[in-house]
Amino acid sequence: MSLLLDIATTLLLVAGGAFVFVGGLGALRMPDFYTRMHAAGLTDTMGTILVLIGLLPQAGWSLAAVKLLAILVFLLLTTPTATYALANAARLASVAPLRVPRRMERDET
Asked: Does residue 43 form part of some domain?
């Protein structure tokens, strides 16, 4: 049973690291602010979730597990909110997307 637990947590940790790595690449490779923020925000959230879930079984039933759960809840609440606030502030500061869909152009006029 311990071997299966170690394999499962290792897979979760590697998957979380891969998500964070892909998010970093996306932040470097995307053409404008909004797509960079989208790539980094989504993959960072998913990577963090996978890493913390991978650490939970290793911590067992202890105070460390409670702290990991508290961190997980905090990140699930704050990361999407911060991403939204950043996008909204950029929009209010007139940071234009690389390509604006025609539907949005008609709504603003």
From this structure: yes
